[in-house]
Design brief:
With 118 residues, this protein is an alpha+beta fold. It is built from two helices and seven strands; from the N terminus they run αβββαββββ.
Length: 118
């Protein structure tokens, strides 16, 4: 009897699991009219992300860093800053600052060896 209840519980758990669809940006991104949004993510999950809000189209494109570079941004995205045509993304718990091209969101490099950058 216990095996049947356990099996039923596990089957119901597996069947009920469904990943929420996430709108990702898989084509060229026009970053000339809008703002970047740092999405912190959950601590110790490595699911911080970068979104972009286009003010003309009034649309949000989620996970633009992942869509462009096919790698996650890191654990706890704290803040970001734009300087010239570079975007500096502070990833606090990963101990790094990720540098991307502000127009294309293409990865340029990391500044690493930092302890809880802010």
């Amino acid at each position: 009897m216990k095996k049947i209840i356990l099996f039923t519980f596990i089957a119901a758990l597996v069947i009920s699991c469904k990943e929420d669809p996430i709108d990702t940006q898989h084509f060229e991104l026009d970053t000339s009219n809008g703002v970047f949004i740092a999405c912190e993510g959950n601590f110790m999950s490595g699911n911080g992300s970068l979104s972009f809000y286009n003010t003309e189209e009034q649309e949000v494109s989620n996970r633009v860093f992942y869509a462009r570079n096919n790698v996650p941004l890191g654990d706890v995205v704290n803040s970001l800053a734009r300087h010239n045509n570079d975007l500096y993304i502070v990833v606090n718990n990963s101990g790094k600052v990720v540098v991307v091209d502000a127009s294309t969101v293409e990865y340029k490099g990391d500044i690493t060896g930092l302890s809880s950058p802010r």
